[in-house]
Structure formats: C-alpha cells, structure tokens
Amino acid sequence: MTSTAAEPDALRPSIYDVAREAGVSHMTVSRVLNDSPQLRDETRRRILDVIEAIGYHRSEAARALSSRRSRAIGVVVDSAERDASRAALVAVQQAARGRHHSVVPFSITTNGQAGIDDAVAHLAAHRVDALCLIAPRIPTLQAITASHHDLPTVIVADTGDGCPLPSVAVDHSVGAALAARHFMDAGHHSMLHLAGPEDSVDAVSLTRSWRSVMRQSHLPAPLVVGDWSSDFGYEIGATHPGMDSVTAVFAANDRMALGLIHGLWTRGIRVPADVSVIGYDDHAGASHYLPPLTTVRQDFDALGCEAVHALLSSGEGPLEGARRRLLPRLVVRDSVAAPHPRRAPERSTSHRLAAM
Amino acid sequence: MTSTAAEPDALRPSIYDVAREAGVSHMTVSRVLNDSPQLRDETRRRILDVIEAIGYHRSEAARALSSRRSRAIGVVVDSAERDASRAALVAVQQAARGRHHSVVPFSITTNGQAGIDDAVAHLAAHRVDALCLIAPRIPTLQAITASHHDLPTVIVADTGDGCPLPSVAVDHSVGAALAARHFMDAGHHSMLHLAGPEDSVDAVSLTRSWRSVMRQSHLPAPLVVGDWSSDFGYEIGATHPGMDSVTAVFAANDRMALGLIHGLWTRGIRVPADVSVIGYDDHAGASHYLPPLTTVRQDFDALGCEAVHALLSSGEGPLEGARRRLLPRLVVRDSVAAPHPRRAPERSTSHRLAAM
DNA sequence: GCGCGTGGCACACCTCTATTT
DNA sequence: TAAATAGAGGTGTGCCACGCG
C-alpha cells in the first residue's frame, strides 16, 4: 500500500502537502527530514505520521538541485566483460547505499576517447559528487587524470606509483608473490604467466609483479598476453607450443584459467598431473571447476567499502593520492601439484614465448 | 579538457551562462538542447559552440524537476547472486542508454517486506518513470503487484498467466521442452530436474514446464529443489542417493550444473559417460566446463532491449499485461550422451525423490 | 534580551505557456 | 509567420528574522 491518493490527477505529494496536512510550515517538515535537533518531539511525531499517511517521499532531484549535492556516486566500469569489474560494481553499489548514496552506473562500451566523453557527459549531467573508476584501461585512466574536474575520484585498480589519483585495490604484488611461492614450494621452476591485456591497469601491475618475483628467483618469466576471456585461455591451452616447456601456469583471472584447463585437456595434458594452474579472483564457481581451482582471492566487498569510504570521507582528510592496498589470499584447492617429469623437462623445444 | 573555468568559486555553468555568452535568452538555448526545429541554423551553431566552449552540461536534476520526468528507469534486482539477473541488469542498462535513459539500480538484500519497502522508497525518491523488476521471487512480485503505483512496470521473468503485469522473458516451456527432447533423442528416460528455489518466479515456471513435458511423455519427473548455487549442485552430485536411478539431470542454471558435475565426479560418476547433464542460461564459461556444457541459452541482451522497449513505448500502446516471450536456443556441447547401462538400469534402489 | 522553535524568502536550473518583435 | 523573450512553476535547502516565555 503506497498511497491513499484520492485526488484525481494527483501529482506526488510535496513537502508543502505534508506541511499543510500537519499544520506547520514546509521548513519544519524539512527539518524533520534532516534530523534537525531543535524540534519538539510532538511536532516531529505528528509530521512523521503525516508523511507515512500520505506516502510522501522527498524528491532527490529537488534536493540535489537545491543543496548542490546529488548524493550520487558515478561509477564507470571500463571493461564490463570482466567478472571482476561486475563484482566490484555490485560491491560499490552496496557500500554506497550504506552511506545513503546512490550510484549512477556507466559502462564504457565505445572504444577510445568517445567512450570516455560519453561517460563524462553522462556523469556531469547527473552532477555526481564523486567518481569511481573500476578496472580501467590505461587510456581511460589517462583521460580521467587529464580531464581536470574537481570531483573526489578513486580508481579501483592497482595503479602504479605514477598515478596522482587515489586508488583502492588488491595488492597484486602480493598476489603474484603468493602464486609464485605456492608454485615454487610445490617444486616448480618453469612457469608461464597467462596475462591480461596490455592496456589493463590491473593486468600490467600483476604482470610486472610476477616478472619481478621471477627475476628475484632467477627464473625465466615466459608470458602470453590474453584478453581475460575463457576462449583465449582455451586457445592457448589447446595450441600454444610453449606449453611443453612449462610445468605451471599462472592465469591473470579465473576465466582464462578455466579455458586453459579445457584447452590443455583436449591435448591430453592434465591439470594438475601434467601442468599446475593458479587463477586469480576466486570467481564464484572456481571451487567447482575440474579440478577445483587454486586461485588468488580478491575481496571485492571490502574493495567496494574502501572505495566508497575514500570518496565520502574526503571531507578534508589528506587522502590526496592516497593508495589503499588490500591483501589478497591464496585459496588452495586442487589445481597445483608437484611437477611431473613428463618428457625431458629441460628439453628446449622450438617455441618462442614473448620472453620479456 | 573539461572546462576553461576561470571564475574563482565557479559553480557549474547553467543554461543562463550559455545564454548570456551567446547573447540570447535561456529559452533559446533550451530549444537547441531539445532539438526544436524553429531555430535559425546560425543561432543554433553559435549556441552549440558556446556550450562546447564553456563545457556546459544540462542538469538532469533540474530537468527532472521541471519536466516531471526523470528519464530514469528503476531496476530492482531481486536475487543479485544469480548470474542471470546480473546479465539482465547490464543488458537493461545498455538498452536504456540507447533510449537516452539512465537506470537507478537497486538490489534487494534484506528479506521480506523490508527489502521491498526499501526499494520502493529509493525509487520513489528518485521519481523513476518506469520500473523493471528482474528475476523476482514470488513474494516480491506479489508486493509489487499489490502496491498500487501508477508506473509503467515490466517484470523480467516468466510469470504465469495470473500475473496482471507485463512481462518479458525467455519462454521456459520451450526451454524445458528443448532439454527434454534432447535427452529423449539421446535415449534417456529417467531424468532428474535440479530446480531453482521454490520462491523464484522463473524457477517455478521452468519446473512446471519440465514436469508437464515429462507427464506428456509418461515419464517420472523426480525433482530436487536447489538454490542456484554451485555448492548446492555439488552436494547433490556428491551425495544425493537418487542419482543411481537416473541417467540424466536437467539443471535450472549452469552454476548448479557445474557444481553437480564436480560432485558426481567425486563419486566416480562421469559426465556424460555415466550421467548426462543439461544446464540453463549459457553462462559465460559454460563452453569450457569439463565437459563443455550443453545448455539452454537465454539471450539477455534481447531481453534487456525488449524490457526497455516495453517500458518506454507504453505511451498508449495497449501493452497492459502484455507478455513477450523470447525463444531460447539449445546449445549442444559435450555433456549429453546416450545412457550408459551402468548397473541394472531398472533396479529400483532405496531412494526417495520428491516425486511430484 | 537570550534561546528555542518556526516561518519567510531567495535560490538551484530547467521546461512550458503565453507573448512580443 | 518565424524566431525569440518573459515569467511561472516544480520541490527542496540555507540563511535570517521573528515570536514567545
């Protein structure tokens, strides 16, 4: 039961209707709505009753217009196809609601400058009072950085030190180290990295960290650059020649890992018996892949909370360029085993992996 | 480059700033923004230039306030954890943008009436022009139906004939028939249905259709009621006693199918050699499950377009209570095979499945 | 005349209707 | 007549003034 509207062409009730009904001025109603302290309890109660009775809801539009604050956070998702960014969007949305804010979501679809312009126009029209950029690609990040708006902004991605904007992310250097350590503990020393696309901020961060770990361990760091999709993982698993010379693969997301395992399987290469695999994200379902996937878990809910917190607490905290990094966690399941001495383990077949 | 703001405490430019700069009245600017025909080309061009130059963006809040139309569609997602509803949300969002509308997303989290009240309050505050309810549970659907608001509303779910509200969905009776036919063509006649939860509108529709097909074919229709999660599928696969007497399972979504296959695997039951499986949705990744999952594909993008179309074309089309049903498609992959005569196929072990 | 509870008025930014040139 | 203007909402918020013990 929403309203007892009896009037014929009834517009939605306004604050004036409430005021009239309660026999007070609209300003008093406004104060009730804003929890102002200087009000007699009896007045407050009476007004609340009227609000309930006529089904009044404050107009966000009028509120935004008058207060010059929309209480909305613009959330732009740069790679909607990535599972991770959807999860992050939902998390941000939830966190925002907890802080009495709504979100204006926008997925960048068009490539290049046009897509960014669209996003900016949309968000500017909505006068969002903060901006959250999820899983950006590098050009998008640059464009946002360059566009000198004055909005509090947070990037949900593991940006490099060079980025002047605040960011919230899982610390991919820890993630990479976790995966590498787990492989090495199991006895692996030729590991392939199935990376995300080169224009993804997160992917380059993860790749960089992985390589750095490999370097420190004096191990080679063969690499193939993917596109996050399971189809790509499949192709690599099914056809990549370099697979022979490697005993483990670290995939930059679970979906590519899934496809990879399938692809390997078509060649008769078994996981983890022949090749071990670690994924990234801990996507829902990863625990039921065959084999259940050992993966690096990102806590998206926490990420969302942190992002919103950073945005809304920027009422003069010194969080200019703050970087918040959460710790990922290795979830050990069944896709890693000790390397199996297939063929001659050190035989250098005629493969060529992008080696740096 | 967003603005050449030189003023000190510069508010965002308003339509008046544009008008002053261009030497016209604000109304003329408004006409440009609304593509009104009666304008000299030269005037239009000049104004457009000014808009570009000072980085003007129309305020949606003011627009909504003044025109009494928010150009926003409220999208409430009832079961955020379901892959299908997320996919639908994204699709609706995209379609809405194409029609120059934004969406106000709201995920119901709290159970029961409270959750619905929250949603209604949020959407009422935003004065959305239309309402889209994705993947509702029955109580939610009832609540929305009962709440007599006047908004154009569309339900994205295969509601029964009893529902007075317009709805858009994949025709689950076709989906069920497709799956059943495929199983039967392969020679199966004892099939289990791993259903979605009993309070889900889509799940009951699918279950009902499935049972009706089984009845028509004079086959038993054993059923277990799940919760969409892969963990649930796993439990059933790993421990359900009724599994012995069945040669095929039709899961109400791919995720449960994934868990099921994993669970079966732990018992040494192989898919499709020992048991065949068909999923539902064609979730991204299903093509790389082991085995690649034969499933019933729902076209969420089309669903989103239809939903938005129904909502925005309701400018006096007779679509009161219209039902739009899209055809799902069977995607044949590798999880179905002819039934393998394990043990005595007709042996009635001591299982008891909810048999109706 | 001090404080608490209230009311008045301007303003935010656009759209629409009526009116002028 | 075609093009442009003036003015009135629509619905809140913020600031200041006012009445009452």
Automatic annotation (TrEMBL), chains A, B:
Pfam families: LacI, Peripla_BP_3. InterPro entries: HTH_LacI, LacI/GalR-like_sensor, Lambda_DNA-bd_dom_sf, Peripla_BP_I. Residues 13-67 form the HTH lacI-type domain. SMART domains: HTH_LACI. GO terms for molecular function: DNA binding. Keywords: DNA-binding, Transcription, Transcription regulation. The keyword Transcription applies. Residues 337-356 are annotated as: Disordered. PANTHER family: LACI-RELATED TRANSCRIPTIONAL REPRESSOR, LACTOSE OPERON REPRESSOR. This is LacI family DNA-binding transcriptional regulator. It comes from Microbacterium alkaliflavum.
